[in-house]
């Protein structure tokens, strides 16, 4: 059965609640104030908290504020119980993260209805979270082995050819094989670096990057940097003729390394998810207080649902399509957002994808 914690300083109300809930076969514990209640939350680990507002030592608002600051308790169902029922009190509780509000006096049916509703919502959320985690684990177990394995298999194949046929190969053929080996090892190294970078970025928030730090992270020759990256990647994909670049002089609030990483991932995606012979367009300008640049491809595309659920290790297409790990796009978005910018994606499946990067000028 579900575990319910009752936090109430009035003994009569507290005992009545405990008796009712015990009669309904819930596992019940109680506390007389917010401070004691906080200890009980950590020790008893309830599935639902019913808490009075006006209490000594630590009131209900103060308790809920501390509860919601703990990531492990962020989704704990929390219901306020109080005789104070005006709109301001209700709004204060909801703003702090309360899930419901039960006003004294209440009936037996009111109490049980509220509990069943809250536990039902909590169960549904838990089930959805479990499904999402299962899908993520499945995606990781598929994505990483494939993305790491494919280039390594190619390296082994090319190296074997080089060893077995070294005596008969022309110098230019040796160089071609060496370049292919280098390209595939670079791909593996980049994925490994992305895994580590993603873990680092997930621990940061825009508030942790000071204004002074951001003021020193600026690239004044952004157009040149973006153009260089686009041309280098197009050459690697042997698609120099597909590339169209039209950039005004740009200065962006990013270090050159950060700008390179963002553009590398976004332009690589455009090349990877579109066919040879289709255009890859990169253009940008400054205006309205923002620096904006666009990357457009005419390839695989994404549905609106796929765009809404873009994330690391999440894949949408069958293995016969180009898939990737989702890390590159996620890293690019995080880097832009950490610098108060945004990445917007518009796409028509099978036709076109437009990635818009906007940064404060």
What key phrases describe this protein's structure?
single chain, 361 residues, alpha/beta, Rossmann fold, 3 domains, five-stranded mixed sheet, 10 strands
Write the layout of secondary structure elements.
Layout: E1 3-7, H1 11-23, E2 27-31, H2 34-44, E3 48-52, H3 60-69, E4 78-82, H4 87-96, E5 100-103, H5 108-165, H6 171-201, H7 211-215, H8 222-236, E6 243-247, H9 256-272, E7 280-287, E8 290-297, H10 304-308, H11 327-338, E9 342-348, E10 352-360
Parallel strand pairs: 1-2, 1-3, 3-4, 4-5, 6-7
Antiparallel strand pairs: 7-8, 8-10, 9-10
Describe the 3D structure:
The protein has helices spanning 11-23, 34-44, 60-69, 87-96, 108-165, 171-201, 211-215, 222-236, 256-272, 304-308, 327-338; strands spanning 3-7, 27-31, 48-52, 78-82, 100-103, 243-247, 280-287, 290-297, 342-348, 352-360. The protein is α/β, with parallel strands linked by helices and 361 residues long. The protein has three domains: 3-106, Rossmann fold (3-Layer(aba) Sandwich); 135-201; 209-360, Histidine kinase-like ATPase, C-terminal domain (Heat Shock Protein 90), CATH 3.30.565.10. The strands form two sheets. Strands 2-1-3-4-5 form a five-stranded parallel sheet, sandwiched between helices. A five-stranded mixed sheet has the order 6-7-8-10-9. Strand 6, helix 9 (256-272) and strand 7 (280-287) form a beta-alpha-beta unit. Helix 8 packs parallel to helix 9. The longest helix is centred in the middle third of the chain and has 58 residues, at 108-165. Mean pLDDT is 84; it is low at 318-322.
């Amino acid at each position: 059965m579900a575990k319910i914690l009752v936090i109430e300083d009035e003994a009569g109300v507290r005992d009545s609640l405990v008796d009712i809930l015990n009669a309904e076969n819930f596992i019940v514990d109680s506390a007389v104030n917010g401070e004691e209640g906080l200890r009980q939350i950590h020790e008893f680990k309830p599935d639902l908290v019913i808490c009075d507002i006006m209490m000594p030592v630590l009131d209900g608002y103060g308790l809920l504020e501390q509860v919601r600051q703990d990531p492990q308790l962020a989704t704990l169902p929390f219901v306020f119980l109080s005789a104070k029922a005006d709109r301001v009190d209700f709004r204060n509780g909801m703003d702090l993260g309360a899930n419901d509000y039960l006003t004294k006096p209440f009936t037996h049916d009111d109490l049980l209805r509220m509990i069943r509703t809250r536990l039902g919502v909590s169960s549904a959320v838990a089930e959805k979270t479990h499904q999402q985690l299962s899908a993520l684990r499945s995606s990781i177990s598929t994505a990483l082995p494939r993305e790491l394995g494919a280039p390594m298999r190619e390296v082994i194949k090319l190296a074997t050819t080089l060893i077995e046929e070294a005596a008969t190969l022309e110098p230019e053929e040796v160089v071609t094989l060496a370049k292919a080996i280098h390209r595939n090892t670079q791909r593996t190294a980049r994925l490994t670096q992305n895994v580590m970078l993603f873990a680092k970025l997930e621990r940061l928030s825009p508030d942790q990057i000071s204004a002074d730090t951001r003021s020193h992270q600026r690239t004044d020759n952004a157009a040149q940097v973006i153009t260089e990256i686009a041309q280098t990647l197009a050459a690697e994909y042997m698609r120099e003729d597909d590339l169209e670049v039209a950039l005004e002089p740009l200065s962006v609030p990013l270090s050159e390394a950060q700008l390179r990483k963002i553009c590398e991932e976004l332009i690589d995606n455009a090349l990877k998810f579109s066919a040879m012979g289709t255009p890859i367009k990169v253009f940008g300008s400054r205006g309205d207080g923002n620096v904006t640049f666009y990357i457009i491809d005419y390839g695989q595309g994404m549905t609106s649902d796929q765009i809404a659920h873009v994330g690391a290790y999440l894949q949408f297409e069958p293995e016969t399509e180009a898939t990737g790990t989702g890390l590159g796009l996620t890293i690019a978005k995080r880097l832009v957002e950490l610098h108060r910018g945004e990445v917007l994606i518009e796409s028509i499946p099978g036709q076109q994808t437009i990635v818009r990067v906007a940064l404060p000028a």
